[in-house]
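Hi R.,

Here are the chain sequences for the assembly we discussed:
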Amino acid sequence: MKLTLWSYEGPPHVGAMRVAASLKDIHYVLHAPQGDTYADLLFTMIERRASRPPVSYSTFQARDLGSDTATLFKDTVARAVETFQPKALLVGASCTAELIQDDPGGLAQALNLSIPIVPLELPAYQKKEDWGASETLYQLVRQLAGRVTPEAAAEARAALPGPSCNILGPMSLGFRHRDDLEEVRSLLDALGIRVNAVAPLGADPEAIAHLGDAHFNIVLYPELARPAGEWLRRRFGQPMVETVPLGVSATREFIAEVAACAGVDSAPALALERRLRMPWYSLSVDSNYLTDKRVFIFGDGTHALAAARIAQEEMGFEVVGLGSYSRVMARPLRVAAEALGLEALITDDYLEVEAAIEAAAPELILGTQMERHIAKRLGIGCAVISAPVHVQDFPARYAPQMGYEGANVIFDSWIHPLTMGLEEHLLGMFSEDFEFSNDAAPSHLGHASHLAPVPSPVSSPRRAEGAVDPSPRAAEVGESSLSWAPQAEAELKKIPFFVRKKARRNTEQFALDHGLWVITVETLYDAKAHFAR
Amino acid sequence: MNSHGAAPLIVRERGQREVFCGLTGIVWLHRKIQDAFFLVVGSRTCAHLLQSAAGVMIFAEPRFATAIIDERDLAGLADVHESLNEVVDQLLARRPNLRTLFLVGSCPSEVIKLDLDRAAERLGQRHGPGLRVLNYSGSGIETTFTEGEDRALTALVPAMPNPSTAGEAPDFLIVGALADVVEDQFRRLFAGLGIERVAFFPGNRSDALPGMGPDTRIVLAQPFLSATLKALEDRGGRHLPAPFPLGAEGTTAWLWAIAEEAGVAPARFEAVTAAGRARAKKAMSRSRDTLDGRQVFFFPDSQLELPLARFLSEELGMQLTEVGTPYVHRAIIDPELDRLPADLRVVEGQDVDAQLARVRSVQPDLTVCGLGLANPLEAEGLRTKWAIELVFTPIQGYEQAGDLAELFARPLRRKARLEALA
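And here is the predicted structure of the full complex:
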């Protein structure tokens, strides 16, 4: 058992729903108790989907458990097929139905339907949403594309007038998948590469069956689509483009890799850089203030990895924390973190992430909607870079993350929460102006975002200790043995709030290391010089 | 009593249900009872549901969490009760000031027959007497949406003190979570009526529960509390059936049931309630212009559907088509049914696809439904009202009557204003 306040991912059957909701002419019949239908609202509300997701639930209740839940499931399948007339069927169980072991796959097969049935085994007490999505896409591709022989696919491919590819991974409730797809399509258009199919977003069973016809596959979101891409490579010998075009450099590399796969000239896609403003914006003097801004990055594996590179190489930030809830991406993340002199935080424990952020005292958080909560509480700016998604992550405007326009969007959205260059200097110079408090939020963000009050009377003990920073070293020697002279305490308050905590900790560390029991203004500046080395 | 002298016919229906499970009640209960914590013993799905349902309304650290059962618990590799101990220890380290911990059963915990009665008793001994540990089931296989509150309150009933003398028990116990602002308004009205010994259940504190005496009259403020009512009756209280305090008429009828029982003179009642009643009618008048004569269709959601239907038809002139509701408890809802048209179609239970077919054929002006159905129906050209807002918003009493009417009128006014976009 694990204590969970907030979770980054839903259960695996929600991942399967995301795949089902992305497809056309497919229905998913889920053996599930009353109440699991809540998942529909993720699609209709967060994504503002205009139709119900194509999912039917057996909605068994306690009284059915003693009798015949299997019959209830079979009836649900039969009715769903009759009502919705799908061309293929996904069947599976949610967490509770998994425990009653009714075998949805076998029950659906027993109905002798004329459409393909893809049974899903998604262990709910072991796996999570992204895995569920990936596994569902993989099973679907295997079952449907597996009906086409490699020879038949090769023949279809040979008959094509030019190079073609599949785009794997974009799906419902993905972070900016809708717009990323459009951006990637525009790059492929420029290169003269035809898109054979996008899977799962917008595909029907026929399109899935003919994935093998394309020359190669682009895996845009590895967590969601790599197993499907690997299977297609084994079955049809299709190469797989794995570079994810997030950021300026990665987009250039992506174009080169795609052009090489298709055997075409990359120049027409690179010419689209006329739309790319990001490099100049980042190089212009106005952006000098971005240098070494301390950022903490947390998200799914793909977006966290890309954000670390963009932050370091394209924005000039200092990455002070890097982590992900995607265990499947742990290895590349550890490598990337090590290169930055960090240890990757691989966890799906929100409390652990919160503690790591507090300890790192960043000036900006690049995270998910969960980190946005943490940021609000800590009074730190935050830009959202990854799922889990929120209604705000489906903006009305075109806002991709990938490709050249994606790079522009990322630049804008990451600097928006920051205090701008001159404003920051003025805050540093006149921090004692009573109306110009450096505890205030950046002026262009109207609402106050400084330290939120702790909910009383049941706040977390860690935060309830009051003004004294509970740094472990200070706590070890006891509060009475290390104290701040009033002048030093006052001086500390002149330091901008977002680095004050760090300054306090460093100074206390310095004092302890030097056997000082009273921190004076001198100590404060000695420590500052010491840590500036 | 309606003109035909007969209550509407109730049709029962079975099929796919598009409703929340009882866990959802935690979303408002954890804000109402400020020294309590709700620990769901369940799956990742339970955690995800709570997060999805609550996501829009959390502005402080929640006083709920999920102990997620994993494969080690299921395979018997870990002692489930030992695991639960560890989770509770962790939780209490983070929140040392809790007075009540609710262990909340879920579908998986029910199916694996995890004995939460025993777990609560054991944890109570381990952490008591400062912490009371209770348990109830909010599982979808047993509870529908607001039934979660019913189960939670039922679990609290045994903790209510048994007054040694009748003097300590309230004369009237108002039952059902109400917004604090609504509770305060009612307290002022009761004081004006000279009814002093009124208690609200639940209140903000779980360690200061009202007593229950043999003369205490139980007045439900919410219609979905049948199990709580039974538990309170078993403690000796007597149920005072009444319409629910929605709208000017509903609030007056509800207050009068109490006032009459307390022996308040009609003239005094009139004097105390007249201003509120007039304000309510005034506040509702704009919405009445929008809603009068329009048709409304209810999908089942919270069991508030029949009181709301009565409010819309009696006070705002709306035409009722179909009123779906998860359950009909006659002992509680009869005072509302008596005021509804005898030819009304009341559907208890749900078969969502059949119901969708009916709403499409009726083409009502307004459809009250859950979040999973609202946008799809909007896209088909129907105007909808999210049912969940009716549970998460203060709607009871005179001062909220205008707000309640506005919740129904707004979608229609909005449609009219945005005509250019259609």
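Residues 129-145 of chain A form the longest helix (17 residues). The longest strand of chain A covers residues 318-324.

Let me know if anything looks off.

Best,
T.
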